[in-house]
Write a structure and sequence with these properties.
This protein has about 170 residues and is α/β, with parallel strands linked by helices. It has helices at about 10-20, 45-55, 60-65, 95-105, 155-160, and strands at about 1-5, 25-30, 40-45, 65-70, 70-75, 80-85, 90-95, 115, 120-125, 130-135, 140, 145. The strands form 4 sheets. Strands 8-2-1-12 form a 4-stranded parallel β-sheet. A 3-stranded antiparallel β-sheet has the order 3-7-4. It has a 3-stranded antiparallel β-sheet with strand order 9-10-11, covered by helices on one side. Bound molecules: flavin-adenine dinucleotide. Flavin-adenine dinucleotide binds near residues 11, 31 and 43.
């Protein structure tokens, strides 16, 4: 089973490591010229920390980040809508996105990473494989495709149709 992961952000690299650890063949295709995370910080909750621990990364993430045990959601005016307290085997950790991405990249086989590959479309073949088309002109065949290509996902659009994100205040 050879699997194509579209998008080399936090989700795409995480999916790749999980497949690698279970012995699947996979490739990760990223549209950008390099595998790099931009943006500020991210809170990794205890369930996410369990995943990172299974990759042997929990200690590094705790060391590079900051542990927190209460999580609040406030309205724009500052009114608290909800708060949660964590008391699990592993803590919740707030960390720079680039530090998390870098740690994940250290665990994935580099031969499976392809940059400058923007997916522009895909279709099912008669033999039930997936034919991927990239903007660089390449066409590749895989057994399955995982869409980890973000909020404007090209993969998702084809499965559930086009829809715009809705601002919920
Ligand atoms: C302000 C803010 C705060 C947040 N805080 C948290 C938090 O504290 N904790 C938390 O868990 N989540 C948080 N989130 C949500 C979290 O950021 C996202 O769920 C997460 O970053 C999504 O990661 P991803 O890898 O799925 O997508 P992305 O990070 O968007 O990565 C998608 C990747 O796919 C690539 N790509 C896109 N299209 C294509 C294509 N056609 N072909 C090839 N590559 C493509 C992109 O270049 C990119 O590298 C927050 C979100 C926001 C906006």
């Amino acid at each position: 089973m050879k699997i194509a992961i579209i998008g080399g952000g936090i989700a795409g690299i995480t999916a790749g490591i999980a497949l690698q650890n279970r012995g699947f063949e996979f490739d990760v295709f990223e549209q950008a010229p390099e595998f790099k995370e931009i943006g500020a910080i991210l809170g990794v909750l205890p369930n996410g920390m369990e995943v990172l621990d299974s990759f042997g990364l929990a200690d590094e993430i705790i060391e590079k980040g900051g542990v927190f045990n209460e999580f609040r959601v406030n309205s724009p005016s500052g009114k608290m809508i909800r708060n949660s307290f964590f008391n699990y085997r592993l803590p919740a950790v707030i960390i720079r996105r680039s530090d998390l991405h870098f740690a994940l990249l250290s665990k994935i086989q580099k031969s499976s990473l392809f940059s400058n590959y923007q997916l522009v479309g895909y279709e099912l073949t008669e033999s039930k494989k997936v034919l991927l088309s990239f903007s660089n002109g390449e066409k590749l065949i895989y057994d399955a495709i995982i869409g980890a290509d973000g909020i404007h996902s090209t993969v998702r659009k084809k499965i559930v149709g086009d829809s715009k994100p809705i601002y919920r205040g």
